[in-house]
Amino acid sequence: MVLSTVDELGEPDARVLILKNLDQRGWHFATIGNGLKGCQIAANPNVSLTFYWSSLGRQVRIRGVTLKADDHESNADFQARSAVAKANVFVGRQSQVLTSRSELDTAIANGARQVSEKPDSIASNWSLFIASPREVEFWQAAEDRRHQRLLYKRDGTAWLCDQLWP
Ligand SMILES: Cc1cc2nc3c(=O)[nH]c(=O)nc-3n(C[C@H](O)[C@H](O)[C@H](O)COP(=O)(O)O)c2cc1C
User: Fold this and answer.
1) Under CATH, which architecture does the 2-82+124-164 domain have?
2) How many CB atoms lie within 10 A of CB 110?
3) Which of the four, 21, 22, 85, 146, has the lowest number of CB atoms within 10 Å?
4) To test the ligand 1 pocket, which listed residue (11, 13, 15, 32) has its Cβ within 8 A of the most ligand atoms?
5) What is the C-alpha to C-alpha distance for residues 81 and 72, in angstroms, rounded to an integer?
């Protein structure tokens, strides 16, 4: 899925992330809480998510606000990561400038050693976030171009639905 955020200048930023889960609270994603997007979200929790399935001709767009899952959920997500993925979090400086590939190789080797020595340790900066929807739009392609668009908007505990012009 594509997660879009806004930076400190109010400019949009977007990147692909893994959808970790979906429940009544919203769509879950996990990342380094003090990384670039984590800081953007801390300053402005408004986000959007975009999904596209080419073979189905289907798009889903979500706009809402990001909540932080509790430590228990973030830790469980971290523990489910592979050893190399954990190592990357322990030593990674995601989105900072990398001076050379050897800097990366050395850091990952150190991280792998750290994980093998203490396999149950958890990176305190790993965070699970939940995008809680304010509105969700379903877009379905039609061969005759009479595409269908349904926009659901939250209204208290209910959802109101409008069809939109394609
Ligand atoms: C298929 C795919 C899945 C990805 N999944 C994640 C993810 O779950 N978490 C994450 O932090 N970055 C993930 N990334 C990397 C992000 O797209 C992005 O490069 C990184 O999070 C840095 O973003 P930022 O500088 O906006 O914080 C993924 C990239 C791709 C292409």
Assistant:
1) Roll (2.30)
2) 13
3) 146
4) 15
5) 15
